[in-house]
Amino acid sequence: MRLVTWSSAGVPARAGALIDGDTRIVDLAAAYEAGHGGAAPASLTSILGLIEGGADASAQARDMLVDPARSALVARDAAHLHAPLQPPPQLRDFSCFEQHLRNSFAAARRFKVRKADDPEAAYRALGTAEEDAVLDTFKRQPIYYKANRFSVVGADDDVIWPSYSRAMDFELEWACYIARPVKDVQVEDARSAIFGYTIYNDFSARDAQAWEMSGQLGPAKGKDFDTGNVMGPCLVTADEIPDPYDLTMIARVNGEEWGRGTTRDMGWTFEQVIAHVSRSETLHPGEALGSGTVGTGCGLEQMRYLKPDDVVELEVERIGILRSRLIRP
Questions:
Q1: Contact (Cβ atoms closer than 8 angstroms) between residue 263 and residue 319
Q2: 15, 141, 274, 295: which has the fewest Cβ within 10 Å?
Q3: At residue 167, what are phi and psi to the nearest 5 degrees?
Q4: What 3-state class would DSSP assign to 255?
Q5: Is residue 16 classed as helix, strand or coil in its secondary structure?
């Protein structure tokens, strides 16, 4: 299923599923009520309720997609898509792509020496001890931070440029959602804990991030601003993606390709990060785990930044395209 949370004029946010090449939405609760003549169960009114309802709720939702009543159909263009879960119960963002780290470190060093008399010589002279320490940690274990779940928005929401930043960037990521409570799960059993996947654009205020990360905590205001975490356009259930580690990822700004990668390059898989986080800690249904940025999947790696009114498109094979417009008030 390609699940969405949608609303329209006079209709509050509710659960649906995309059909017909993502051109129409089946209102799951309306489909149930049309076919059964009674109120829909809670598991069909929200995506979180559906996840918490387990296999039975998912099977019931799939039944609603078989010959749904005309009254339960909504044109995609007539609906407003929120994030699949807005907000998710918890949001962690990992760093699973080594090439992104290496590219970003190199770009940051070049930025530091850009005004030197001989930038290339100054670049070569810079030490890399701090970068090497991060990469050593990356190779030892998954690394992550807890993001602001309340800043999560969806495919049809504009991203508002934070007032304190002059250097805005996007990040091409994808994410998985937890299907059931898990604790101390083994890697080989963790695939069954994944309910599905979505695209994740982790917008970043790079100037704020650069200042605050020297404090050895964070990121904080580099990431935490309203509308900064964009997820969608839909949640694709795990059964629709037999091999999640063979998906092409593409980033475009105003139609120009800025980056391309593949989920195959994840140094840590979602199964591995679930096993890591669940050590002595329970993960709950609906929690979201971000992959971190794929190599070349942001402007920082190319020393390029966004401008007001730029439109960023992130595409992940089998999931779709997440399109966001960056607005500077």
A1: no
A2: 141
A3: -135, 90
A4: coil
A5: strand
SS3 content of the chain, % helix, strand, coil (to 5): 30, 30, 40
Single-letter amino acid code for the residue at 1: M
Token pair 């795990």 is at which residue?
Answer: 238
Between CA 311 and CA 159 the distance in angstroms is 10
From CA 149, how far away is CA 138, in angstroms rounded? 24
Please state, in angstroms and rounded to a whole number, the distance separating the CA atoms of residues 238 and 84. 14
Could you tell me whether strands 194-202 and 248-253 are parallel, antiparallel, or unpaired per DSSP bridges? Answer: unpaired
3-state DSSP call for residue 199?
strand
* Helix residue ranges per DSSP H, 229-316: 270-277
The answer to whether the CB of 226 falls within 8 A of the CB of 253 is no
**Joined tokens for residue 321:** 């395209």
The residue assigned the tokens 């475009």 is 252
**Model confidence over 157-211: pLDDT tens digits?**
999 999 999 999 999 999 999 999 999 999 999 999 999 999 999 999 999 998 8
